[in-house]
Amino acid sequence: MPETEFFTLLGVGFLLGLRHALDADHLAAVSTVLAERPSLRASSAIGLWWGVGHTLTLMIVGAVVLAWGLHIPEQFEIIAESGVGILLIVLGWTLALKLYRERWHLHSHQHDGERHVHLHSHQRQEDHRHRHWMADSVRPLCIGMAHGLAGSAALMLMVLSTTQELGTGLLSIAVFGMGSIAGMMAIGLTISLPLVCSLTVSRRLFVALQGLASVASLCVGVWMLVKLSSAVAGY
Questions:
Q1: Is 0.70 topped by the overall pTM?
Q2: On the chain, which terminus has fewer CB atoms closer than 10 Å, C or N?
C-alpha cells in the first residue's frame, strides 16, 4: 500500500472515530453516567475510560479476526447490540430509581423573618470524601467495552476492505479508537457544562436534567431493541 494512501486511511479512520462517538447510544450511555457525577473533571475521565474500553474490545476482536481469518456472524452483531440496548435501559432505570429514592420536593422554611421555598431531599447525603479513581473508572470502562463489542462487526468490515495484515489492521483500529476517545472526551465536557451550570442556578433545574438523561437512556434502549426485533423478524 503506498505511504500516502496509508496515512490518508489513518486520517479517515481517526475522523470516523470522532464521528462514531456521536452515535445516539453512546451519547445516551455517557450522559446518564455524567448526570450522576456533574463535574468537568469527571466528564473528561468518563469520556477517557469509555473510549479506552471501547478501543480495548475493538483491538481484541480485531486481533482475533485478523490473526485467524475469522468472520463475525450477523447474529453476533444483533446479540451484542441487544445487550447495549438492555444496558441503556438499566442505566436509565438506575438513574431514575436514584432520583426517586432521593425524593426531591419543595421545602419551605423561615429565614430572617421571611418564608423561603427550595428543593430539598431527606434521603440525599452529601459525601465530600474523595472516591478512588478506579471505582469511578470501572463503570465507564465496562460500558465502553460493551459498545465496542456491538460495533466490532461493522468496523472489521471496514478494516478488512483495506487490509488483512495484522499489524496494519490493528494500527487502523487503534487510530479509530483514538478518534473515539478524543470525541467522547469532548462530548463529555459538552454534556457536563449544562449540568454543572444548572447546579449553580437551581437544584430543580439540575434534577430536571438528570431526569431528562434518564428518560433519554430508556428511550434509546427501547428504540434499539424494537429496531433489532424488527430486523430479526424480517429475516
A1: yes
A2: C
Name the packing angle between helices 74-102 and 203-233 (round to 10°).
150
Domain for residue 147, yes or no? yes
In a domain, 172, yes or no: yes
The yes-or-no verdict on residue 121 having pLDDT over 50 is no
- Least Cα distance to 27 among 190, 174, 167, 163 occurs for 190
Longest dimension (CA), the chain: 80
Closest CA to 37 of 163, 151, 130: 130
Percent of the chain with pLDDT over 90: 31
Tell which residue, 7, 13, 6, has the closest CA to residue 183. 13
